[in-house]
Design brief:
This protein has helices at 4-9, 22-30, 49-62, 91-99, 109-123, 160-163, 167-178, 195-198, 240-256, 265-274, 299-310, 328-335, 355-361, 371-378, 388-398; strands at residues 40-44, 67-70, 82-84, 87-88, 128-132, 149-152, 183-186, 204-205, 211-214, 219-223, 229-232, 282-286, 289-293, 317-320, 342-344, 366-367, 382-385. The protein is an alpha/beta fold.
Length: 403
């Protein structure tokens, strides 16, 4: 039987998108506005939000700030989404927070967890919260925290069904949240072409807060005003350098706003060394095989993964699955030049792309009836991508959990 929080949340409909802030706002009002008990930093964007938030939270903790971290989705356990002082919330505390929201049945799955996180952060006395936005921004419940600082990683084409048919429309949805905060920061991957659509003319480029350059695949040089320092990016893949740059810039902006300690080199290094964010270009051993896990779940993320795989010097087999709103064919074609055999497996999820559609996306792929078969067919080494739900399913099958 699933833990109590999962059972309670199952009634909320994980795939429901609610284009309104009224229900979540009413719930926060009934709880006495816990989100006002601490300052917060919001991370928006298409890709890299969670990585940026995880690095930022760890760095703030290393500076002595009791930080809360809210992210989505989870890989194995829903408690992963809410961290307090670098520890996942315990199931009993989360269940109590969810119980307090039983009188608000109209809250969606995401809204329920967002309100629960904001409530738990207040009850546990966090000094600052780092929040990863869900989808878009205009109607995202994380906006209700009233963040003092917000950052944008990039604007891609994901979730077009809900956010709009082109990048300008999607940028406007994300920009609605970005423009509402006192200090907005643009990550280095934000395309200048979409900046006008954001509607946030006062947004500061990350380079205006922290000078930054990549030294090699793992090392960067950053300068937030005290002179250049060399840092090791804690997450593999050169694409993570942009997320690290934004995380450092958001820390600098929060310090200037008076809501976070000023950056100190030793603490920054310590925080980065402590960062954990599994399932992103992350290697595990499953049934004696090496499997590289990456949550690449849209066209832009697939391109970043392809670049990273090209630098490995080997062509792993690809285990692929995704949700039904993803451009599966385009993602597979992007990855095809850097992988060997392609193995398709259907996710155990109400929003999973059915096998018939996966077959259309890759007619030459091998079909696996279940995850153990997919791992067997893929051989060693293998890479698994297309959805964080696939990553989570492999971690759960392997008994790896999410340390």
């Amino acid at each position: 039987m699933p833990p109590a929080p999962s059972r309670r949340l199952s009634r909320r409909g994980p795939g429901i998108v609610n284009p309104s802030l009224e229900a979540a706002s009413a719930a926060l009002d009934a709880l006495g506005h816990p989100e006002q008990a601490y300052p917060s930093i919001l991370v928006l964007g298409t890709n890299g939000k969670g990585s940026t938030a995880a690095m930022l939270s760890a760095v703030l903790e290393a500076h002595g700030a009791a930080a809360g971290l809210y992210t989505s989705p989870h890989l194995v356990r829903v408690e992963e989404r809410i961290r307090i002082r670098s520890r996942d919330v315990d199931p009993e505390a989360l269940d109590a927070a969810l119980t307090r929201l039983d009188s608000f049945p109209d809250l969606s799955y995401f809204e329920t967890l967002t309100v629960a996180a904001l409530d738990l952060f207040a009850r546990r006395g966090v000094a600052i919260a780092v929040l990863e936005a869900g989808m878009g921004g205009r109607w995202d419940a994380t906006r209700l925290a009233g963040p003092a600082v917000a950052g944008l990683t990039n604007v891609g084409t994901d979730h077009a069904r809900w956010l709009g048919p082109d990048r300008e429309s999607i940028a406007a949805e994300k920009g609605a949240a970005l423009a509402s905060v006192p200090t907005a920061v643009l990550g280095p991957q934000v395309d200048p072409a979409v900046v006008p659509a954001l509607g946030a003319p006062g947004a500061i480029p990350a380079a205006g807060l922290v000078a930054f350059r990549s030294v090699d695949g793992e090392t960067v040089e950053a300068d937030w005003g005290d002179g250049p320092v060399t840092l090791r990016c804690p997450l593999p893949g050169r694409h993570q350098h942009a997320n690290l740059h934004l995380a450092l810039a958001l820390h600098a902006a929060a310090a200037l706003a008076g809501i976070a300690p000023s950056p100190e080199t030793d603490a920054v290094r310590d925080g980065l060394a402590r960062t954990r964010w599994p399932g992103r270009f992350d290697t595990v051993t499953v049934d004696g095989r090496t499997v590289l896990l990456d949550g690449a779940h849209n066209a832009e993320a697939a391109a970043a993964l392809a670049t990273a795989l090209a630098g490995l010097g080997v062509r792993p087999s690809l285990i692929f699955s995704c949700l039904d709103d993803k451009p599966a064919a385009a993602m597979i074609e992007t990855l095809r030049p850097v992988v060997g055999r392609i193995v398709l497996v259907e996710l155990d999820d109400p929003r999973a792309m059915p096998m018939a559609s996966l077959r259309e996306a890759a007619p030459d792929a091998v079909i696996a009836p279940d995850l153990p078969s997919a791992l067997e067919l893929a051989g060693d080494p293998a890479a698994a991508a297309g959805s964080l739900r696939l990553v989570g399913a492999i971690l759960e099958y392997a008994g790896c959990g999410t340390p």
